[in-house]
Each structure stands twice: as C-alpha cells, then as structure tokens.
Specification:
mainly beta, 1 helix, 14-stranded mixed beta sheet, single chain, globular
C-alpha cells in the first residue's frame, strides 16, 4: 500500500530506517516490459515512534512486484509476506498486542480509530493471528484466510478461542 502523498515522513508514527545507501540492481532497456530490478532491504529501529525492524527481498519485472520474502517486526507483532502484489500475496501475522497496528491505521486511513475494540489478555497469553492470501488489484484487494484469536475480549466480554474463516474486500462504488 502506498503512503498517502500528504504524509510528512518526519511525522510517521513508526520508526525504522534502511541502510544508506541501499542498492538496486537491474537491467534498463528501451522496452518497459524488459525492465528488471531487485532489492534486499534491511529495516532497523531508529528515531521516535513504534520501533520497526525487518528485511525485505523484492523483485520487479514486467510490471509486477514480487516479495520473495518480507519480514517486519514490531514490539509485539511479527508480519511475514511473500508473493506478487496485485496477484497473490501470502500474509502471516502474529500479535500479542494489536495496538502495534494503530500507527499503520493512522497512515492508511482517513479516520483511524484511537483504540481497537479487540483486546488481547497478556496475563493469559492472548494472541491474534492472520494467515491467508491477499489477491485482486491493488485498488480493490481481497483477503481470504483464517484469523484465530485466543484469550481476548471484545468491548468487554472475554473469550478463550475464536477461529473465524474470513473473506474481506474493500467496499467499491459504481
């Protein structure tokens, strides 16, 4: 997902930086479909905000971006991505505190929530996970997978286990 153009990078609610300079390799030719590039990026915590670390191995060819391996770590959340943007992207997420995700919601939502209604119980090793496939165009993504949650509460009532199968898509207008 692109960072909205009005976003000031100095005000992002996450803090991570890649190596400087980073290296891209590829072939440039006269025909756009023959352009290829690859990047291996490392993200290390820096500055203020939620510390972010990880590694991204990406390739670009024939108008598509493939994430061979992308791992992102937040204080209580691990995210792993692999696949092709706009075609099929495997997503795996595991979190013991969903508040780690609030800065991402701030970056990509016009009206982000101040808090999330789902709270994980740290005393009982509460955890939420996501395992599935994001497919479809980048402007109309669809997700299908499992979203297991253990030892959590939803705006009050607590529960031990919840294992929904999920199919989600962004609302569209004609």
């Amino acid at each position: 997902l692109p960072i909205p153009p009005q976003t000031d990078p100095a005000r992002l609610p996450v803090a991570g930086a890649g190596p400087r300079p980073f290296h891209l390799s590829g072939e440039l030719a006269r025909q756009a479909e023959s352009v290829r590039a690859s990047a291996k990026l490392t993200i290390a915590p820096s500055g203020s905000g939620v510390p972010v670390s990880g590694a991204i191995d990406a390739n670009y060819a024939k108008g598509t971006v493939e994430l061979a391996n992308a791992n992102i770590s937040l204080p209580n959340t691990l995210i792993a991505l692999s696949g092709t943007l706009g075609a099929g992207l495997q997503v795996h997420l595991s979190s013991t505190n969903l508040d780690d995700l609030l800065p991402a919601l701030e970056m990509f939502s016009e009206h982000p929530p101040a808090t999330l209604p789902l709270k994980l119980n740290p005393g009982r090793q509460g955890e939420a996970a996501v395992a599935g496939l994001v497919s479809g165009r980048l402007d109309a993504p669809q997700f299908q997978g499992q979203v297991p949650v253990t030892n959590a509460s939803m705006e009050g009532p607590a529960f031990d286990h919840f294992l929904p199968a999920c199919h989600a898509s962004r609302p569209t207008t004609a």
